């Protein structure tokens, strides 16, 4: 890939709006033809302001796509057993197409146990170990929404992956690891870096595509990158700052995601997309 004076901005905000328009049409069609309205259930445990804001955003996004959202709000004293019982109820409710358990939950709750209680077919947020295992084996499942959104964004701009060197910086369970699995399935050669990686800048410099998934503001520097790199910044930190130092990385890139407006909008778009897809699948299976 050759470097450009002005890299192409990977505009997730515009693409997400396009996807939402398509989802609205699909949802309306589903209601007219099958009498089914897609429903996403969101579970919020406690009163964390950021989590409450995210859940509210997801509810409004559902409305914009002619979908319903069922909000379940639980006190911060909720136990693991109580949360599991709520998830069981939603699993058994045939009107619910997708379940989202907002992260993080209070410390007394076994979060992984609760995530894995969600039925795989209702795991539209891509958080279960079963879903991750299926993705890793190239089998059908709903991938974690941010990695899924990144892949959709790359596809929209026709960025080739086959045979390319992809470097993922970060190995979290819902971002770095599933993203690496999706890139591997797309026939990229994938390196996953983490806190124990030695000579990190040299490793990053090998990437035709670099994915910043580390959760540290301005962590990746421009002199770590090869000329013409595709840089995808999945970070979002205080002050609208990503995980890559945008100012120094911009001149090195052929494609780059802005922060905000790059990866972020794609995450919710994929959550809605998975929910509509599950509603369609459920109706067609009857």
Question: How would you characterize the overall build of this protein?
Answer:
By secondary structure, the protein is of the alpha/beta class. The chain has two domains: 35-122, Rossmann fold, CATH 3.40.50.10860; 145-263, 3-Layer(aba) Sandwich (Rossmann fold), CATH 3.40.50. It has helices at 12-34, 49-64, 80-92, 111-115, 129-136, 145-156, 176-185, 200-204, 246-249, 264-285, and strands at residues 8-9, 39-45, 68-74, 98-101, 165-169, 189-193, 209-212, 229-233, 253-256. The strands form two sheets. It has a six-stranded parallel beta sheet. Strands 3-2-4 form a three-stranded parallel beta sheet, sandwiched between helices. Helix 1 packs parallel to helix 10 (264-285), helix 6 packs across helix 7 and helix 6 packs across helix 10 (264-285). It starts with 7 loop residues before the first strand and ends with a helix. The mean pLDDT is 96.
């Amino acid at each position: 890939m050759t470097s450009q004076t002005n890299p192409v901005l990977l505009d997730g905000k515009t693409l997400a709006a396009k996807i939402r328009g398509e989802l609205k049409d699909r949802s309306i069609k589903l209601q007219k033809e099958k009498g089914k309205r897609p429903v996403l259930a969101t579970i919020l445990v406690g009163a964390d302001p950021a989590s409450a804001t995210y859940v509210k955003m997801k509810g409004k996004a559902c409305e914009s796509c002619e979908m319903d959202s069922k909000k379940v709000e639980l006190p911060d004293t909720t136990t693991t057993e109580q949360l599991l019982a709520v998830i069981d109820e939603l699993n058994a409710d045939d009107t619910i197409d997708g379940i989202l358990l907002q992260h993080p939950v209070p410390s007394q709750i076994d979060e992984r146990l609760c995530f894995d209680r969600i039925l795989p077919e209702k795991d539209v947020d891509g958080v279960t170990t079963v879903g991750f295992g299926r993705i890793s084996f190239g089998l059908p499942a709903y991938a974690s929404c941010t990695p899924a959104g990144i892949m959709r964004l790359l596809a929209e701009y026709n960025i080739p992956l086959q045979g390319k060197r992809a470097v993922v910086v970060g190995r979290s369970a819902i971002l770095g690891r599933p993203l690496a699995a999706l890139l591997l399935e797309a026939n990229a050669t994938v390196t996953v870096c983490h806190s124990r990686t030695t000579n990190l800048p040299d490793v990053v410099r090998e990437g035709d595509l670099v994915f910043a998934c580390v959760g540290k503001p301005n962590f990746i520097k421009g002199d770590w990158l090869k000329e013409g790199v595709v840089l995808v910044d999945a970070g979002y930190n205080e002050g609208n700052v990503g995980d890559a130092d945008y100012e120094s990385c911009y001149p090195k890139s052929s494609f780059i995601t802005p922060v905000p407006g790059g990866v972020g909008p794609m995450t919710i778009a994929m959550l809605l997309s998975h929910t509509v897809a599950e509603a369609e699948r459920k109706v067609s299976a009857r």
